[in-house]
Specification:
six-stranded mixed sheet, disordered N terminus, Aldehyde Dehydrogenase, Chain A, domain 1, 20 strands, single chain, globular, Aldehyde Dehydrogenase, Chain A, domain 2, alpha/beta, 487 residues, 19% strand
């Protein structure tokens, strides 16, 4: 089994650290199997206690929140520059420790992280309060203040990007943060924190704790020293996080959770463009993304033509070790997750679904690579339609008129994102208004580097927003001040 050792800091980043080896095997290796976490770290609640104490001390002594905001901004910009300078190193860590092929990690993820940190840095001196209109003999103010120490829990599918989405707004607002990455993919996040210190961000402002969700994640969610919490992951775990946060002192929680997003294609759409967007969503990280557009809802008149175009785009993939530049298709994170995809497909077949493409493992490359899969003959009750899969599986349903298409697009549980493809802008805007989703893309299906646009879901897909002004404001609390200034 191919393995490698990565040094793990076990003390505060403010002084020379003791190191120990944590051994992991990459998801592209066939030997990565279900079982214990991939690092040798033993999760404990005491680890969280120490990290929160470290962050609390840093808030009190570093002046991070009280220094001129432009100083925070400058430190964060230096951090972004350093992330770019170390882009190849970070990309290699991301590729070796996650499902992200190195070409995508370096040119996509790392570049996006640097740009995101720069975006949030510019908010540091733009977070003023407000003056309220009150009686003429009083002065009313709303003062914005950082929480102090906030917590975050991030998933395994985009480790660097998800960490930056949490850390950027928290630090810009003047907070310290304790972040727990997934136990499957922790190492690029650890390096990100080290680079923050190298850039001049005070030690203890960005803390990383490792361990699993049952112990470390639960301890972080419950910790009385955490004033605000942000979580990205499954809806089931999000419910547990919210419950834990409420049981040990009420604290605000931002949740970015699961999705089962529709891609609604009308007969007048540019089918070549629609096919490219839909295939891109399915192939990106092998469908292991909460916003994956996993339900195709297509007008019946063009269904066969669109399926042909999709099949041609999905038939050629380039699996391989994530650390090789030639690899363009991601492995499934673990054998456990691959077996879950197997199970959902098998249950869907028993419910009458027909597999038009794929439907199983890709052989001969090692690891848990899964074929891009198209499923027809499905209904709203089919397992692959109802359940978030986190794999390269696309269900196909046909509709005849606009109302029917919109009804099929509405999912009873999830509302994270949706795509609409049409040449009729009026129809696209009507669909946008009707769709119960936090993000609606029209004639595309992907984010851009416009970090001003927030992301978050409706229904069981979450509460609150990552990115945008909204993410920064979520890391501030507001105090009302009323001053009697006399007659």
């Amino acid at each position: 089994m191919r393995q490698w050792a990565i040094l793990r800091r076990t003390q505060s980043l403010s002084r020379p650290a003791t190191t120990s080896a944590a051994r992991v095997s990459p998801p592209a290796n066939a030997s990565r199997s279900p079982g214990p976490p991939t690092s040798s770290i033993t999760p404990t609640a005491e680890t969280v206690d120490r990290a929160v104490a470290n962050a609390t001390q840093a808030v009190a002594k570093s002046g991070w929140a009280t220094q001129p905001p432009r100083e925070r901004s400058r430190a964060m910009r230096r951090w972004a520059d350093l992330i770019e300078e170390r882009g190849v190193e970070l990309g290699r860590l991301e590729a070796l420790g996650s499902t992200r092929p190195i070409a995508q990690a370096v040119t996509g993820d790392v570049a996006s992280v640097a740009e995101g940190i720069r975006f949030f840095s510019e908010w540091a001196d733009k977070l003023g309060g407000d003056v309220a209109a009150t009686r003429h003999d009083h002065l009313g103010m709303i003062v914005s203040e950082p929480y102090g120490v906030v917590g975050a829990i991030t998933p395994w599918n985009f480790p660097l990007s998800m960490a930056s989405w949490k850390v950027g707004p928290a630090l810009a607002a003047g907070n310290a943060i304790v972040l727990k990455p997934s136990e499957l993919t922790p190492f690029s996040t650890v390096r990100l924190a080290e680079l923050a210190v190298e850039a001049g961000i005070p030690a203890g402002i960005f803390n990383v704790v490792q361990g699993n969700g049952m112990v470390t994640g639960d301890a972080l969610s419950r910790h009385p020293g955490i004033a605000k919490l942000s979580f990205t992951g499954s809806t089931r775990t999000g419910v547990a996080v919210m419950k834990a946060a409420a049981e040990n002192g009420i604290k605000p929680v931002t949740l970015e959770l699961g999705g089962k997003s529709p891609q609604l294609v009308f007969a007048d759409a540019d089918l070549d463009k629609a096919a490219a967007c839909i295939a891109g969503s399915l192939l990106a990280n092998a469908g292991q993304a909460c916003v994956a557009g996993s339900r195709l809802i297509v007008q019946r008149a063009v269904m066969d033509e669109l399926i042909d175009k999709l099949t041609a785009k999905l038939a050629i993939v380039t699996p391989g070790p994530t650390w090789k530049a030639s690899t363009g298709y991601a492995p499934i994170i673990s054998e456990t997750q691959a077996r879950r995809i197997d199970d959902i497909l098998e249950r869907s077949r028993l419910q009458g679904a027909q597999c038009l493409l794929g439907g199983g493992r890709i052989q001969g490359h090692g690891g848990a690579f899964y074929q891009p899969t198209l499923l027809a003959g499905v209904t709203a009750e089919t397992a692959a339609v109802r359940e978030e899969i986190f794999g390269p599986v696309l269900t196909i349903q046909a509709f005849d008129d606009e109302d029917e298409g919109l009804a099929l697009a509405d999912h009873p549980e999830y509302g994270l994102a949706a795509g609409v493809y049409t040449a009729d802008l009026g129809r696209g805007l009507r669909a946008m208004r009707a769709l119960k989703a936090g993000t609606v893309w029209i004639n595309r299906y992907s984010r851009t580097l416009d970090f001003i646009l927030p992301t978050g879901g409706y229904k069981s897909s979450g509460i609150g927003k990552d990115l945008g002004r909204q993410a920064v404001e979520a890391n501030l609390r507001h105090k009302t001040v009323l001053i009697d200034i006399g007659a």
